[in-house]
Design a protein that fits this description.
Length: 57
C-alpha cells in the first residue's frame, strides 16, 4: 500500500506534464486501491501506461 500511496503522490503532485487520459486513469486506479476498490496490480499497470505516455518516440 505504501508504494501505491507514493505513486498517487507522484501522479497528483509531481507529474511532469499536463494531465492526459492515461494520467487520469492512473490517478483513479491508485486512489481506488487506497479505497480498497482495485488491486495494486491494476494501479501499477495504469501507472506504467501513463509513464510510457511520457516517452517521445
Amino acid at each position: 500500500m505504501d508504494r501505491v500511496a507514493q505513486a498517487a503522490d507522484i501522479l497528483l503532485n509531481r507529474w511532469p506534464t499536463p494531465t492526459g487520459q492515461k494520467h487520469m486513469a492512473a490517478r483513479k486506479a491508485c486512489l481506488s486501491v487506497l479505497q480498497g476498490l482495485k488491486s495494486a496490480r491494476e494501479a501499477r499497470e495504469a501507472f506504467v501506461e501513463a509513464a510510457l505516455g511520457l516517452i517521445s518516440w
